[in-house]
Each structure stands twice: as C-alpha cells, then as structure tokens.
Amino acid sequence: MAKSVTAQELRDQSVEDLVAKLKEAKTELFNLRFQAATGQLDNHSRLRTVKREIARIYTILREHELGIVPLSGESAEETKEAAE
C-alpha cells in the first residue's frame, strides 16, 4: 500500500495522472471496505487515510478547474484563459 501523498506532490502532476491516482484510490477504498466487512482488515486507519487522499485529489482537480492553482507545466495566465 502506498503512503499518502501531500497536496504539493499532487499539484506537480498532470490531470491525467490525478485521474488515474483517483481511480486507484477508489479501488483501494473499495477493497478496504470489503476487508472490513469480512473481518479481514488489519489496519483500520488506512480507511481514513485513503478517504483523505481521495478528497485531496478532488480538491486539487477543482482548484485546477477554477483556475486557482495551475498544475504542472502551466502558468497562471494559461490557466485563467482556459477557465474563461
């Protein structure tokens, strides 16, 4: 299981990478919930960590969509033009 990433590390990635990471995190959350339901989950704190990671990714994607923070390789002006 991967360690949780920081918001800055996520901002340094492209939108495609973030979407892939989001899909991976959602799959992991599903598997963790399944393990918890069957009594096989060893580390219950991992559920909380994965939920927070998903929320962090959604927040970064929304910031990009609104043009608040540019993602990697983009200037603030390019992001504002794309938002308009």
Walkthrough of the structure:
About 70% of the residues lie in helices and about 0% in strands. It has about 80 residues and is an all-alpha fold. It has a domain at about 5-65: Helix Hairpins.
What is the helix/strand order?
HHHH
Radius of gyration: 15 Å
Question: How would you classify the helix and strand content by structural class?
Answer: mainly alpha
Proportion of beta-strand residues: under 5%
How many β strands by DSSP?
A: 0
User: What's the average pLDDT?
Assistant: 86
Q: Under the CATH scheme, which architecture of the domain at 7-64 would be assigned?
A: Orthogonal Bundle
Overall geometry: elongated
Largest sheet, if any? none
How would you summarize the topology of this molecule?
Blueprint (H helix, E strand, L loop, with lengths): L6 H5 L3 H24 L6 H22 L9 H8 L1
Protein name: Large ribosomal subunit protein uL29
Family: Belongs to the universal ribosomal protein uL29 family.
GO molecular function: structural constituent of ribosome
